[in-house]
Design a protein that fits this description.
heterodimer, A: 287 residues, mainly alpha, MetI-like fold, two-stranded antiparallel sheet, 11 helices, 2 strands, 3% strand, B: 252 residues, alpha/beta, Rossmann fold, six-stranded mixed sheet, 9 helices
């Protein structure tokens, strides 16, 4: 009896079959799409309901309504989402870099605390974090006896910044770890201090490596900004809902309006994803 | 901890006494004694895994030791009060894998430490860096990045980078082991010139011919102890210990 020849042979594993977790999935998915996808979404989401309503004799009405609302939805809605994403990116990056450096601190306590904060916010549902921040923070703050009120969206920005911070902390830590240990040794032998080594030798080498994953997180963050609508912040999703209500809640408006919002996000994130992938290829490490 | 008498050049510049070092349960150095005088060139040879690299890495405190004493210019290295930066200003080190800073040009690699560590002014540092690169015959490669240089060229930049700190002692950790055969010679030539100028050099090497030619003293280590040592002629031609004989017969 001959056994089938099924020894475990070392075949080169195709990258798609790799079990390794790829932190750039979002950008890779978005960025490798054909630009024509945009028009495909148009076709499905805008034309389909138009045809559907043509049978009821109101062919152009949904488009007219959308056309009227478009400037409002973009300037008051989508640009606000962009603003939120920008602020979150700035706060998240600043705090994330500090936290990431904390993770490689020589002080065990700082290392442990930074690690804990990073893991906590990296592995929690964003919406839960948002709720906690929204409910835990007061609506007013007293600084030097003066009471300041601040709107809910500021709290939403803080809430969204936390998971961004945690993920950027991991990017920083990972990038620093990716520089060979021998670079630390060579610097040490030349009598550099630890800080000099970190800022002058190590970080300049891994700075470029951090940019693609950082941009990837920006795309993810931007797509997560509609979460704030659940908490009553008037972002593009909330305004779209209100616009539909203002148009008498007609069901044939749903697809064109939300389809339009989808297209806005796609049109904004797609170039970012393309650029991210290009930079990733360009900065592919050669040591 | 340190003896109160200041170090004078007639005493050993580097002195190891009964040095023990282990990584966890693995004992790497088991009672090493070496004395090196100023201007001396010593070569440490021996089979791989015999603790040669660990030994010289202890001298500039890249590795710490468990027991014993290492003195560099009279200053005890094996103490909590050690000022590592001051120690390392006196000791240059060149590694097997060059370890140049890949984001800096050859000239910048050489200039960095004097500028940042010694806080020297830019003009004089640059002048000296250019002289050093010329000395290692790389004057035309000042603006090349490490990735654009051959292994031998990178290693010579690494030597110039260490010399820029004007050290009293140079450590060479198997500096030719990663090189192509044809580039080994240029690196050895550079070291030979350095030795001829009176630099105190401690080399870990597998280049027996070179060791014989350049060394004042040869130490043979095996399994964490110094088995035999002596002047090159007696060591190579008249080895006494069986292990040394075996090693030399395999390698020569």
């Amino acid at each position: 009896m001959t056994k089938p020849n099924n020894f475990a042979v070392l075949k080169p594993t195709p990258s798609s079959a790799s079990l390794q977790y790829d932190p750039m999935t979002v950008s890779r998915f978005l960025g490798t799409m054909s630009p024509w996808t945009l028009f495909a979404i148009f076709a499905v989401l805008l034309i389909w309901p138009t045809i559907a309503s043509a049978q009821s004799g109101e062919a152009v009405r949904p488009f007219n309504a959308l056309w009227r609302w478009m400037p409002f939805l973009i300037t008051k809605g989508f640009l606000f989402n962009v603003l939120i994403s920008f602020l979150c990116l700035v706060i998240g990056t600043g705090a994330g870099v500090v936290l990431g450096l904390g993770q490689i601190s020589q002080r065990r306590f700082i290392r442990a605390v930074s690690w804990l904060i990073t893991q906590l916010f990296r592995n929690s549902p964003w919406l839960v974090i948002l709720f906690i921040v929204m409910l835990a923070l007061p609506y007013e703050m007293t600084i030097f006896g003066e009471v300041y009120y601040y709107p809910a969206w500021i709290k939403a920005v803080l809430g969204l910044s936390l998971p961004v911070m945690a993920n950027i902390s991991e990017i920083v830590r990972g990038a620093i770890r990716s520089v060979p240990n021998t670079q630390w040794e060579a610097s040490e032998a030349l009598a550099f201090t630890r800080n000099q080594t970190l800022w002058r030798i190590i970080l300049p080498q891994c700075f470029k490596r951090m940019i693609p994953p950082w941009m990837n997180w920006y795309a993810i963050l931007t797509m997560a900004t509609p979460l704030v609508s659940i908490l009553g912040v008037d972002d593009v999703v909330n305004l779209t809902r209100q616009a539909i209500v203002a148009e008498n809640n007609r069901p044939e408006l749903l697809m064109p309006f939300f389809g339009f919002v989808l297209i806005l996000f796609f049109a904004y994130c797609y170039p970012i994803a393309r650029l991210t992938l290009r930079l990733e290829r360009k900065f592919a490490v050669k040591l | 901890m340190t003896t109160s008498a200041p170090w004078t050049p007639d005493q050993p510049i580097v002195s190891l006494r009964d040095v023990y070092k282990s990584f966890g349960s693995l004992e790497v150095l088991k009672g090493i004694n070496i004395d090196i005088m100023k201007g001396e060139v010593i070569c440490i040879i021996g089979p791989s895994g015999s603790g040669k690299s660990t030994l010289i890495r202890c001298i500039n405190a890249l590795n710490d030791i468990q027991k014993g004493s290492i003195k560099v210019e009279g200053q005890e290295v094996h103490t909590d009060k050690l000022n590592k930066l001051e120690l390392r200003k006196k000791i240059g080190m060149v590694f097997q894998q060059y370890n140049l800073f890949p984001h800096k040009t050859a000239l910048q690699n050489v200039m960095m430490a004097p500028l940042l560590v010694l806080k020297e002014d830019k003009a004089s540092t640059e002048k000296r860096a250019r002289e050093l690169l010329a000395k290692v015959r790389l004057a035309d490669k000042e603006d090349a990045y490490p990735g654009e240089l051959s292994g031998g060229q990178q290693q010579r930049v690494a030597i110039a980078r260490s010399l820029a700190m004007q050290p009293d002692i140079m450590l060479f950790d198997e500096v030719t082991a990663a090189l192509d055969p044809e580039t080994v010679k240029e690196v050895l030539l550079t070291i030979k010139e350095l030795a001829a100028e009176g630099m105190t050099c401690i080399l870990v090497t597998h280049e027996m011919g070179f060791a014989r030619e350049v060394a004042d003293h040869i130490y043979f280590t095996d399994r964490g102890v110094i088995v035999e040592h002596g002047a090159p002629e007696t060591f190579f031609d008249n080895a006494q210990d069986e292990r040394t004989k075996l090693f030399l017969s395999q390698i020569l």
